[in-house]
């Protein structure tokens, strides 16, 4: 029976070792790199950047010439229409007509003035099937422009705002990647803490089993009481429960991390405790300077003010006096044949100025203007408040980062001291110089110190990547994380 039990124990140990070996041993840097390049969150950020890029290309297209071909081929009709006769009477005649046309045009918008320049070439063909007649009307070249006067220039304001919006999207992509580092760092340490708890529970159970064997021998010799043995057995049961809970917590934390990384849910991961901390000193002024240069907020503040000014300009210019000047100059001719219609063309000119002047609008124009002015003031106040909060967050993050570096050093030393104290307490208990209560106290302090050290590492690395996100600056390499403009 003893041999059979030993066989099963060896078999369980073998499979446990296999599971441990199959686990992928990774570091924090590797997990962050994987998340920043392959996770679903990264793909979303990349798609947002691509969307912003094509929105930018759409804006640029508004300032480039467009070539278009329009026409009606054919426009045939057969009907009975009233026709006025030479004597003034009306007679109904059958009419069979076709009127086809083609127009090839190039249009160029003028961002500075909001107008348009265009060049057209047009051809018309008219067929009267009853009379057997065909006529052509050609406009080989027609040059013209259309210019709004005293009206809101949408293109001019877009030239000021859209470059800022696109630059924001580029910086936001970098911020999104750094935010991924923040999120995955939290998940990393969630799993690491549970793996540490699992390791603690396993070691505690093994140590308790060893101590129980020693205690039972001492009990036989009458050196300890039955109460001490029972207390140790109770500790063993508690350690078994703690190990079962730790195993479940490791599975759940592994599932959360794998889900974020886009990996199979059950893929085992063995994490390493980050070693040395980055050696860097960050001052408030340095962080503020980099944040102002690199973060999208600086652009967003400027864009918000420009948009409010744009809305005010639109309210002023779209509801008052406005006019449009339209002028064309070109060549035209008509003939019975296609080639003849392009011979000896005549001049064609057109000039038109239309205007609109509201005389009474019930105070609508004034209300719109005052609303836009109030919104501009509100935006100015909001931007000022956001700037103050932005700077305050940077200062808070720098101070917290410096504090957490000190905390990691203290908890690391406390972890070593607590481990050494427990080792001494365990050896002292074996020789019978301390009670089981003192041993349990040392055990609890050891476990608490280890967890406190891992928690302080979590807080430090989270703050480290928070600081990178807040400033978009790599303080280790002293380079910005944003691409060069």
Automatic annotation (TrEMBL):
InterPro entries with a match to the protein in the record: OMP_efflux, TolC-like
Keywords of this entry: Cell outer membrane, Membrane, Signal, Transmembrane, Transmembrane beta strand, Transport
Keyword Methyltransferase part of the UniProt annotation: no
Any single GO CC term annotated in Swiss-Prot or TrEMBL for this entry: cell outer membrane
Position of the signal peptide: 1-19
Entry similarity comment: Belongs to the outer membrane factor (OMF) (TC 1.B.17) family.
Subcellular compartments: Cell outer membrane
Superkingdom per UniProt: Bacteria
Listed name of the protein: TolC family protein
Membrane spanning residue stretches: none
One annotated GO molecular function: efflux transmembrane transporter activity
Keyword flag Cell wall biogenesis/degradation: no
């Amino acid at each position: 029976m003893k041999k059979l039990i030993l066989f099963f124990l060896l078999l369980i140990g073998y499979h446990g070792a296999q599971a441990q070996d199959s686990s992928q041993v990774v570091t924090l840097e590797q997990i962050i790199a994987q998340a920043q390049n392959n996770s679903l969150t990264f793909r979303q950020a990349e798609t947002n950047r691509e969307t912003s890029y094509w929105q930018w290309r759409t804006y640029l297209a508004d300032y480039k010439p467009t070539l278009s071909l329009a026409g009606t081929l054919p426009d045939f009709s057969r009907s009975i229409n009233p026709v006025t006769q030479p004597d003034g009477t009306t007679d109904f005649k059958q009419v069979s007509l076709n009127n086809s046309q083609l127009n090839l045009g190039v249009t160029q918008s003028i961002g500075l003035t909001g107008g348009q320049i265009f060049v057209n070439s047009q051809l018309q063909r008219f067929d009267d099937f009853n009379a057997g007649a065909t006529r052509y009307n050609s406009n080989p070249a027609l040059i013209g422009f259309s210019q709004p006067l005293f009206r809101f220039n949408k293109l001019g304001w877009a030239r000021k705002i859209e470059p800022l919006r696109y630059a924001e999207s580029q910086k936001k992509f970098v911020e999104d990647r750094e935010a991924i580092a923040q999120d995955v760092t939290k998940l990393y340490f969630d799993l690491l803490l549970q793996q540490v708890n699992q390791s603690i529970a396993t070691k505690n159970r093994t140590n308790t089993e060893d101590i129980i064997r020693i205690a039972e021998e001492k009990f036989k010799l009458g050196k300890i009481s039955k109460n001490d043995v029972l207390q140790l057995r109770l500790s063993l049961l508690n350690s078994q429960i703690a190990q079962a809970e730790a195993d479940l917590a490791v599975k759940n934390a592994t599932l959360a991390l794998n889900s974020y990384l886009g990996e199979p849910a059950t893929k085992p991961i063995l994490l390493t405790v980050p070693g040395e901390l980055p050696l860097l000193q960050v001052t408030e002024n340095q962080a503020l300077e980099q944040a102002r240069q690199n973060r999208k907020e600086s652009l967003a503040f400027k864009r918000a003010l420009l948009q409010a000014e744009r809305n005010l300009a639109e309210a002023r210019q779209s509801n008052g006096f406005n006019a449009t000047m339209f002028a064309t100059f070109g060549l035209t001719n008509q003939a019975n044949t296609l080639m003849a219609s392009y011979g000896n063309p005549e001049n064609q000119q057109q000039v038109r100025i239309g205007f609109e002047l509201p005389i009474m609008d019930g105070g609508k124009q004034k209300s719109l203007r005052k609303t836009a002015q109030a919104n501009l003031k509100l935006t100015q106040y909001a931007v000022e408040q956001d700037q103050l909060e932005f700077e305050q967050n940077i200062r808070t993050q720098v101070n917290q980062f410096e504090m957490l570096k000190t905390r990691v050093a203290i908890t690391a030393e406390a972890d070593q001291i607590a481990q050494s104290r427990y080792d001494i307490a365990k050896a002292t208990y074996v020789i019978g110089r301390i009670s089981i209560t003192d041993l349990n106290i040392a055990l609890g302090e050891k476990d608490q110190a280890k967890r406190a050290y891992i928690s302080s590492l979590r807080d430090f690395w989270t703050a480290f990547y928070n600081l990178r996100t807040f400033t978009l600056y790599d303080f280790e390499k002293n380079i910005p994380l944003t691409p060069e403009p």
